[in-house]
Amino acid sequence: MTHSDNDTIGAIKVRHEPMRIAGEKVDAEGVVEVRYPWNDTVVGTVPAGGAEHARRAFQIASSYQPKLTRYERQKILLKTADLLDARKEEISDLVTLELGISKQDSLYEVGRAFDVFTLSGQLCLLDDGEIFSCDLTPHGKQRKIFTLREPLNAISAITPFNHPLNMVSHKVAPAIATNNCIVVKPTELTPMTALVLADILYEAGLPPEMLSVVTGWPQDIGDEMITNPNIDLITFTGGVPVGKMIAQKAGYKRQVLELGGNDPLIILNDLDDADLARAADLAVAGATKNSGQRCTAVKRILVQEKVADRFVPLVLERAKRLKFGDPMDRTTDLGTVVHEKAAALFEKRVHMAAEAGADILYHPGRNGALLPPIVVDKVPHASELVMEETFGPIVPIIRAPDDDEALIALSNSTAFGLSSGVCTNDFRRMQKYIAGLKVGTVNIWEVPGYRIEMSPFGGIKDSGNGYKEGVIEAMKSFTNVKTFSLPW
């Protein structure tokens, strides 16, 4: 797109955000257009950066030695949280423009990022060393072994479209808390929020060498973010194929891969009508918040046959109440998905499930990237709609056997193992599901995605390589443990 004298489309001013390489604003030959999914207009441009930009950022990161005290790190992180809170309207507008999620959802996103920076700041005060006495065995000595954690130095962070602020925060805040330098490549679909966050961090007092944000097409800049020799660790959140490609290309480099999910909400047959209503609230909110674009969204609702006929109308009633449409309207519950192509694919999966015997109970019609909350009952578990990760506000109900062993086996039958939610009031059954589900998280009476920004988060199987995110675990991943011992 060429910039004319009139750069405003409708009421939206097209903004250009250059890369931020160690605090310097850097452009490239070409630009990547950022489109508002609601009406497909261009709302901004970022540079189409290349390998040379990432290379320069990693060169700066690896040669800079941060010397911030714990107190200074804490000050920067807490100041960033305050600035995010002070500018939440403007930042949530930007998230909505890039991603198309409702203002309700984008304001929630800014609130979550506030938590990430606040908790990271507080954790700076916690000394992470341990002490081991050595006089423990017959041949023990009067010594003590001490541990301390040292920063890695240069971290490569590759972030997804679905949380343009919070996913970047989850990588940047723990990096700062541990005195690391970090180079972020946000996805080309929603890159502007990360660039604005960089400015906020610089304003909060972060030495600019500690953070760079580079943008560009994956084919131009992606490999450098994985293979650059100065990288100590790659942290990636995104889809399974890219995650596995990174694992292959990165070789001996450390990687923290947080990949897709196919999370079930499991409704057991010991529930009365009031409990089923509560479970239906969780089912619809879990499937539609953030337009269903969360790796931990409810992607399958497994309800035992005995209560299914009572449960399904409750889900339908709640889905019909959701207001979907203009994401900037504050009364809108559900905005768009990331682009029309995604919306069309998910709608196609709904129709394929119907051809295989599912009942579409509610589908008020797709409009471009605006996908309504589609309720589908009696979905065959083998259908693509629920075996693949359907990243949209679909509410697929699977009628599951009343036998718990069979239901656990059904739940475990996909390639993913991220999170799950289980609704039951029977303590023994809670224990059975917590033990039996092959996932990283089991939440009782809560959506699969429930967590605090500090608690360990991540999956197994195709959902990730077992390393956890969440502020505490990320801070561990971003450091090396050094031991030393002294006569004692």
Fourth-tier CATH superfamily name of the largest domain = Aldehyde Dehydrogenase, Chain A, domain 1
Count of individual domains: 2
Distance between the termini: 69 Å
Largest sheet: 7 strands, mixed
* Estimated share of beta-strand residues: 15-25%
Strands side by side in the biggest sheet = 17-18-19-16-15-21-22
Remind me, CATH topology of the largest domain?
Answer: Aldehyde Dehydrogenase, Chain A, domain 1
The poorly predicted ranges are: 1-10
Domain Aldehyde dehydrogenase: 30-483
GO molecular function: lactaldehyde dehydrogenase (NAD+) activity
Keywords: NAD, Oxidoreductase
InterPro entries: Ald_DH/histidinol_DH, Ald_DH_C, Ald_DH_CS_GLU, Ald_DH_N, Aldehyde_DH_dom, ALDH-related_metabolic_enz, Put_phosphonoacetaldehyde_DH
What does this structure look like?
It is globular, with a radius of gyration of 24 Å. It contains 16 helices and 24 strands. The chain is 38% helix and 22% strand. It has 488 residues and is α/β, with parallel strands linked by helices. The chain has helices at 51-63, 70-86, 88-99, 103-123, 166-177, 192-203, 218-221, 224-227, 240-250, 273-288, 305-321, 340-355, 384-387, 404-411, 427-436, 471-477, and strands spanning 8-9, 12-13, 15-16, 19-21, 24-26, 31-36, 41-47, 131-133, 143-151, 154-159, 181-186, 211-213, 233-237, 254-258, 263-267, 298-304, 359-362, 374-377, 394-400, 416-417, 421-423, 443-444, 460-461, 479-487. 51% of the residues are buried. Mean pLDDT is 96; it is low at 1-10. The strands form 7 sheets. The protein has a 7-stranded mixed sheet with strand order 17-18-19-16-15-21-22, sandwiched between helices. It has a 5-stranded parallel sheet with strand order 12-11-10-13-14, sandwiched between helices. It has a 3-stranded mixed sheet with strand order 3-7-6, with helices on one face. It folds into 2 domains: 15-259 and 464-484, Aldehyde Dehydrogenase, Chain A, domain 1; 263-444, Aldehyde Dehydrogenase, Chain A, domain 2. A hairpin with a 2-residue loop joins β4 (19-21) and β5.
